[in-house]
Amino acid sequence: MLQPKKEKYRKRQKGRMKGNAQRGNQIAFGSFAIKALDSTWITGRQIEAARQALTRHMKREGRLWIRIFPDKPISKKPAEVRMGKGKGTPELHVAPVTPGRILFEIDDVPEPVAKEALRLAAQKLPIPVKFMVRPDYEI
After folding, report:
1. Which residues contact 49 (CB under 8 A, 6 or more apart)?
2. What sign does the dihedral 99-65-130-136 (CA atoms) show?
3. Domains of the chain, residue spans
4. What are 111-120's pLDDT values in tens digits?
5. Considering only Cβ atoms within 10 Å of each terminal Cβ, which end of the chain, N or C, has fewer?
6. What pairing do the DSSP bridges indicate for beta strands 72-76 and 63-66?
7. 42-73+90-133 in CATH: which number?
């Protein structure tokens, strides 16, 4: 049987998000967190909208940790531009997120407040998330 020829050196400029998160998948700072259940790019604007929803509901009490940072530039070319002439200018920055990644952590607030605040933040994000409590948390 002849095997199909494999492409060894295929260009992967945008990157592939395969597998689960290897880092940032444990609650490290706070008592409550939300964890990503899917893989996607999360923009800086989405992170900021979620942060505002969180802090507003917590009435600026407690502490908040944002565990992702948009450090990947995404470039786009303008509409109706011919092919060639180089790559487009960077338009926005994203944070690549894979399943299992902790996105936000909060502490020093009661559990019902934390659950509702993280639910409001999750509505601002483009992926499904799961509410988590630190395993050694005591009420």
Report:
1. 124
2. positive
3. 42-73+90-133
4. 999 999 999 9
5. N
6. unpaired
7. 3.90.1170.10
